[in-house]
Every structure is written in structure tokens, then in C-alpha cells.
């Protein structure tokens, strides 16, 4: 049978001419067997034991899994093997363990049959499987602050004397030193971490590299993630409902609270003193031997000096603090010792008489260990007048929870969003996923193509790693570029990227700045192409960064999946820049800029990634570079072919033909009707799908020339009372440059806010004017429209001096610009000013009208 056991069927009918053996289910049913069918599999059971299995085939028949044995062979096979006997008794005994069956067999209770090793039993896995044992994580840290563990304990049922409900701990993995902060709310975690990070890095001169926490929202908020990303802190997060993965912090919290309970019990203090006890517990843990650091103390490893134990006192013991009273008054007051004040050479004491915390250095301690202070339990519900914790500064607010009837709907909505994100992300995150997914062949081909390009470009040499040198690791990055539906297939790209964050400044790199073309420049060129009906084509430089020459010696590990046999211990000495290195963008730009300027192209002084060349007939050839993508525009295709030929001689190029897509914007052009549009349909559809909004109505119009519009609100920022500046510039009726930003100075009136907004718009107008003067001298910016007549008067004259003399001098330069005639500021109706949508919320009809004015389709 399917399980290797031979089973004999009796009382069967023998038909020699029959080519197939048939088993009637009705016959098995009459003999007490039970059968079930599910997912195309028929199972015949005797009690709980499955004796036969059949797979459904054609004609709705089930084919038995196994083979038929007849005659003497059946007799010879009737005896069961040891494995079969063991498995049979295992099932008879309700899936008893192997040790239990061996014990019964020794006693002769299993019909004298022996028990051998029990093979794999799937049913035991389903019924008995336990969670995999957590192994101890090993972080071979070499210095302090390299790896930090953190966790939040709470909320406490009893608030502390300072009103704290939570305890936040930070543990240094190298020294196992612990810091504790006491917070009122979970939202204070970010400010506590930020303050502690600044302090600890300033004191040590080192920086935090890794941070391990759980997935709580207090650790995964946007501001927390942004801080870690900007500071280069690598996050290690635990799996949901798996606190064992944050074992160091969890165990530390347990150790602290164990000490807290012991000290409060010994001192006979109420639970409201838990924060003082926890702080003292951390102080003592830092001075206690730890097995994790070879029985040294955390303070010793952290500072390099042994701790001083001569000043340690019993928590909660009676203490007498010196006070300045009258000549006939007592010279001390009886208090309770609460621990040690950080940064102060004194003791923290609780004075029951005054009901407040005091700090004193002149203290006499009662060292009788048998006596403990008797503190009235009435103080549990009182709050100390002394502000002990600067972080817990917000009043505790009642947590408002949504009704339970909406919990299921919220869960479904969350699950749907997660499912959509999973479905949308079809790109593997590492090499292992790439070779095991459905598109593994395509990803492998992409990796091989990348390696061929690297070898062809002679990117590195395999060498032995010199002594004293460190290597930079690398990883594979995968990207699936969606093609145009019905036109081109999706493209699978694999890029080998160096982990440049391990590079050392001043050793592995010096300068890293590299310019990229401004989006305004791209839209400006497309506007010129539309106006003059120029040819526009696109090129892509394969492995652009690999063309840059490195000036430093950088060693990198061999890429995963492509290590050279018999040279596994060799490393790559990089000769060319590689994606991920800090200096790669700069080295590539220097190489490309040198090539372009040597072929009679001029670099724009307003945008260093815009190149142009004037032909003998007065026409221009334009080239825009965005990393490895470029747009080329010229009067005819012959000029474009010449530029392509020159570039192909120097770099490995991929001719993409007429421009179709740049920076996520689809370029749609109809030469017959001279129609030229930019579309971000794919991006917008993703946003609409993400926010469950699906509505689109086209609007648009066409205008000639470059026109600017500017507007401002007044004190729109309710927190800081700053005003909002908004402007938009169009060419041919299409928006090419826009911005909405808060003003840096608080305006005292609407006129003042509009005046400062005009200044910002004129700054952008000057930049655009300079760009267009290089690209096409016939295209100039002359007018910026504003809907405030008072602000326009202010730009032309020194009137209202008493009301404007306080405005920052830098905003007054607009008067000189207008006086020279470089820019003209004119009045426009508020209804016709599209910048109105940049500064305030508008009704749907007004918002659509503003979009119509700048040629934006939504």
C-alpha cells in the first residue's frame, strides 16, 4: 500500500480476463471500513488508521496508490518488517513516543515484537510540534555603542511619584551597561531616545550603529524611522509576538523589576516609589558582575575603571540630612534613602515630614539592617512636588479607543492594505529570494548580464586582502521595470551594489557631491521641444557608474553566487567606481562632463547637468543628464545620430529611440496634431489604489510664453503663526516649476506675507530666466502675476515705511530687480490665479479650475 504495508483482501472474485482490479466501496462499507474524499484523494480508514489511498483520475475513478501482489508473493510478503511493526504499534498506541514503546516492548507487552527506530510521522508533527528553541544571538561587538538593545516596560498600575507610567531602557551590548528613563506616555519614547543619543554620543565620541527593538509603534513611528535613517542607524526589529528575539532588553527589564520588588519589600515603601527603586537597581546592575562580559562589571567595561563600592547604602534605610535651622532647632531631619542622583555628588532622599524629594551630601545613614522605616501608605496617592523627570512632562490623558464593533472592519482594512503592498512588491530583496522565486530564470539572466558588463569593463582585480585593510561588502539589488502595455515587455534588472556605508571618510573617499538635473530643467526642455517641434530621443548608459575611475584603493568581497572557485578567500580590488560607493556618482559625472566639454558642448551655468551646442545654422542641440538617463533634442534626427555615435564610442549605450518615459513621467506625443503631453498615470493609479480613490476628470488649456503666478496666505501655520508661500511657472500653458513652503519669518499682515512671497517667486524667475537665456535667447520671462495690489505697490516704491521697516533686508532685493526691468509684477484676479491652490484648501470646482489654468490633468 501507500505506506509500505501489505494488506490481504479476502472473499474476492477472480476474473482472469479482467485487465484491472476493481474494489467496490459498498463492499468495504459492509465490512466496517469508512471512506472520505477530499481534494481529489480518496481515503479508506479502519477506525483512525488510513489503510488505502486513491488518486482521482478520468471517468471519476480513483486509482489505488500501491501495487498488487498475488500467489506465493503475497504469502512471502505477509510478514511485516520491523519498521512497519513499529509504525503500526505507534498508531495503535495513540502516537506514543519511541521511548515509551521501547519500554513496553522490554516488558513483553507488545506480543513479543521488537521496536526499532521510529521514522518520521507527519501526524505527530501536526499534533505535537513545539516552537523552535531560541538560540542565543552572538553579536561579536568590538566597542561600546556599536549595538544597542532597547525596550519599553509598562504601563504600571501605580504611577510613580513623578507621574511616570513607563520605563524605557537602553542596554549597550558590548559593556551591558543599562540606562533607564521614566515616561508618562509612550509617545515620549522618541524624545527620550533623541536626548539620550545626543548625550551619550557627545560624551563618548562614538556613534550608535545598530538598534534592536520590538515592533511597537513607539519605536516604529515616522519620526523615529527618519532619525535612524538620517543618522545611519541600522534597525533590527523583532518578529511580532516574539519577545525572545529581544532577549537582552527583556531579560534586563525582568532583572530590574525583580530588584524593584525586593527593594520595595525590604524598605516597606509603597509601590509609588517604583521609579526610584528602578533607577537605583540600574545603578547597582551597572556595578554587578555579568556572565556575558566574563564576570566583569558593566561600569568597568564601559569606563575602563573599577567601580567604587564604599558609598553604597541600603535602599530605603533611615538617613539623616543636615538642615540649616535656628540655633535651638535640630540640625538634621530624618529621611528615607532612595538612591543616587545622576550627575550630582549627593544622595536622593525622601522626606516624609515635608513629603518631597531632597538631594543632600551631608547625610548620616543608619546602618542597622534589621530596622526598616515605617512609611504611611497614605502617601501612595500623593504626587511629590519636586519635578524629578524632565522627560515625563505631559499630563496623562485618557486613552480614547474606538468602539469594538469597528475592530473587525479595521482589521480587514489593514489586511487588505498589507495584501496590496505584498502583491505590488514582486521584486526579490536578496539573492536567495531571486533564485527561488517564479521568475528565477529571468533574475539569474539579469545577474549574469550584470556580471558580464562588470568583467567587460574590468571593474576589479581579484587579489589577496592586504594586512590592515578592511573590505566593503556588497549585495544584489533587483528591479522590475514595467514596460508600456502592448508595446514592450517588463524588464528585469539586477545591479551589484557595494555597501558604501562601511567606507571611512578621508580614507576610502573625500568628495562625494554630484549634481543631478533639476526637474524644472527637464520640464523647461520639454516645453521648448513642444514649442519648436524638435526631435526628442532618449538614451540609457549601461552601468554608468562603472565608467568612473576610482582614486582610492577599495577592497570588496566577491558577489554572492559568483565567487570564483579555488579563490574564495580572494577579494575584489576595485578599479572602477561601483554603485553604492560614496564617490561613485561624482566620479561618473566627472568622466561624463569631461567627455561632453571636449566635444564642443557647453555646460549650463544654471544647471550643471544641462548641455547645449549651437550649430552653424543657428539651431541648438540639447542634452539633459539624469544619472544614467539622458534626453537629446535637436532640429533633425541627423544631429541626434551624430551625438549618439560620439557617445557610443566612449560609453556602452542603449538607444531607446523616441523619448517615452523619464523619471516616472510618460511622454506622449502626437506629431500630426502637434500635441505633446506628460503623464504620470501609473504613479497616480498607484496613489489612487493606495488611498482607495478612483476618480479622474480631464481639464486643460494652452498658453504661450513663460508666466509666473504667486500667492500667500496669512498665518496659516497655527502652531508657529507663519504664512505659506506658493508659486507656479508655466510654459505653453503647462506647469514647469512650482513650490509651496512656509515662510521663515512671521508676517504681521497679509500685505507683508504677499510681499515676501513675491520675493521668493522672483528668485525662481531669475533662475529660470538665466536657464532659458542659455537654451533659447528668444524665450524670456517678463511677468509674475500676483493678486495683492498692496504687495505690488510695495515692490515698486518705499511707501508704508513705518509698516514695513522691520521686514528682513533680503526680501527687499526684489525692488532692485523690478526697478531694472528684469521682472514685471502685475495684478491678476484671485479667481484666475492658479497659485491659490498652493496656499489653501479650495472647493473642488475652484481646485479643478486652478489645475486647468496650469494644464494639469487629473
TrEMBL record:
This protein's UniProt keywords: Aspartyl protease, Hydrolase, Metal-binding, Protease
Domain Integrase catalytic: 139-306
KW Cell membrane (keyword) present: no
Keyword Methyltransferase: no
InterPro entries in alphabetical order: DNA/RNA_pol_sf, GAG-pre-integrase_dom, Integrase_cat-core, PolX-like_BBD, Retrotran_Ty1/copia-like, RNaseH-like_sf, RNaseH_sf, RVT_2
Pfam families registered for this protein in UniProt: gag_pre-integrs, Pol_BBD, rve, RVT_2, SH3_retrovirus
GO BP: DNA integration; proteolysis
Organism name: Gossypium anomalum
GO-annotated molecular function: aspartic-type endopeptidase activity; metal ion binding; nucleic acid binding
Gene3D superfamilies: Ribonuclease H-like superfamily/Ribonuclease H
UniProt protein name: Integrase catalytic domain-containing protein
